[in-house]
Amino acid sequence: QVQLAESGGGSVQAGGSLRLSCAMSGRYTTAYCMAWFRQVPGKEREAVAVMASPGKTEYAQSVTGRFTISKDKVNPILYLQMNNLKPEDSGTYYCASDTWTVDWCSLGREFKYVGQGTQVTVSS
Predict the structure, then answer these.
(1) Is the distance from CB of 97 to CB of 36 less than 8 angstroms?
(2) Cα–Cα distance, 16 to 31 (Å, whole number)
(3) What confidence tens digit (pLDDT) does each residue in 84-93 have?
């Protein structure tokens, strides 16, 4: 099993930045495919960024150019750098992982392991 713990959420004004972190534990070496999702009450969960080892990334159109997914080079931590935030970016952000290999790792995949989430609120 893989355990995931998000942190770094908070409240920020539009145009601001936040960096979310996701600490991995357990059998994280099998987490070949990692992603960030967000969910707003009453709406479907949206995949915003995905990363396959080694280094393939994909972003939702709504965040392309503003969000960056990355992985710490030393520690088992996944990041989501969010710049130029907009009120519509508000929601609960979750990190997720699965064993999808690089050819199968994409925004449309279901992920086996999902963290508890961290709240992001962007005010106008």
Answers:
(1) no
(2) 30
(3) 999 999 999 9
